[in-house]
Amino acid sequence: MKYLIKDAYAYIGSSFASVDLLIENGRFVGISPSISDGDATVIPSKGLVVFPGFTDVHVHLREPGFSYKETIASGTAAAARGGYTSVCSMPNLKPCPDSVENLREQLDIIEKDAVINVYPFGTITVGQNGETLSDIEGMAENVIGYSDDGRGVQSEEIMLSAMKRIKALDKIISAHCEDNGLLFGGYIHDGEYARKNNHAGICSESEWGPIKRDIELLKKTGCKYHVCHISTKESVDLIRKAKADGVDITCETGPHYLVMNDMMLKDEGRFKMNPPIRSEQDRLALIEGIKDGTIDVIATDHAPHSAEEKSKGLEKSMMGVVGIETAFPVCYTRLVKTGIITLEKLVELLNVNAKKRFDIGSKIALGERADITIFDLNAEYEINPDEFLSKGKATPFEGEKVFGRCKLTMVGGKIVYNEDLI
Fold first, then answer.
1. Is 44 helix (H, G, I), strand (E, B) or coil?
2. What string of DSSP letters covers 61-74?
3. pLDDT score of 386
4. Among 138, 235, 319, 347, which residue carries the largest CB count within 10 Å?
């Protein structure tokens, strides 16, 4: 199929330009101020913005094992609706991908049902038990990296051994940093809201303590290391200093950590995730982290659960919220339109930096795969979970008015989401 995207305002290189884009056999074959091609299907884009497809390096697709929460089909459809063309899937599955055999079960479903590019993580340890290393070498060819996401690796010795083996493969660890010994039954941030409302809190050190430990191990091993979903000011400071010291470390944070603080919580499951939304001081530190490059990537940690699992308030609900359909509009509305960052910076956080670090994703250039998304940045609407394509509906942004609506997403020149654009 041949497509001609007319009157595009597209992100090319490191800035935006007014161009026409010609796509044939899944790749860009023409990028010019004006293109005519009578054989192409025209996609009218005047007044719209064309981005390289977004990349999310941290999503939970829940399959195999938990398809009542999400499937690869529903999760990737939701991603396409959010403007994402590539995602990295986390390994807390059943069976979890700790061996070639278990990984194959997931890969088969991805091949059959995914509508976008999906890159799975293998586990660091068998069954994510933190005790025995998984088949790291056997899975290497078919995983983007290694993670025990949902659980922190508690043993320094196990993490050191993992780093050495993963370094030898030139792969990456994507680390869920959490010290179980510092949780004390907490389920939201140990801050003002928790104290005022008699909730058990999770201290910040439970996150930054393991980061500090692992930075020292990285200095010994030189392993590539990416920190999942940072939420504290101390984490930002540690990673900033480690980068200055030449440590091979990157990190991500989520939209909810950038635009919310713990005083915005309500006693509803849609506000419960791990790590928790923290203080205003932490939020402001995260903002500085994305502005100065300490934080490389915005990732959603899209974590769907059933309505019943999220219906039990802050204390009893499962950890995790959905976010892949709301990430761009929330960040655009709350960060770009307010002047905190530029639109170009947001593209770096949603596409460019993930491509640099994980070598996945797309760019708009001749010969490249046509993985793109088209947005109407002037469209204002209210976030309504009933419209989500994800099976998960629990979002802290329910009812918020935002700007930026996805009109079309294309992967390898194939339209995978279309909202009345053609």
1. strand
2. --TTT-TTT--HHH
3. 98
4. 235
Contact 59, 399 (CB under 8 A): no
Q: Which helix (H) or strand (E) holds 233?
A: helix 233-244
Token readout for 331 is 């960040």
Alpha carbon 216 to chain centroid distance?
Answer: 26
Residue 353 is predicted with a pLDDT of: 98
| Strand 117-122 to 145-146 pairing | parallel
Low-confidence ranges of the chain (pLDDT < 70): none
Single-letter amino acid code for the residue at 168 = A
Query: How many other CB atoms are there within 10 angstroms of residue 196's CB atom?
Result: 9
Judge whether 233 and 282 are in contact, CB under 8 Å.
Answer: yes
pLDDT of residue 40: 96
Q: How high is the pLDDT of residue 207?
A: 98
In tens, the pLDDT along 92-144 reads 999 999 999 999 999 999 999 999 999 999 999 999 999 999 999 999 999 99
d(C-alpha 289, C-alpha 305), whole Å: 30
The per-residue DSSP string of 195-206 comes to HHTT-PEEPTHH
**SS3 of residue 340 by DSSP:** coil
In angstroms, the CA 28 to CA 11 distance is: 14
The pLDDT of residue 168: 98
d(CA 203, CA 369) in angstroms, rounded, equals 44
Euclidean distance between CA atoms 381 and 223, whole angstroms = 44
Tell me, yes or no, if the pTM score tops 0.90: yes
Residues designated as active site: 301
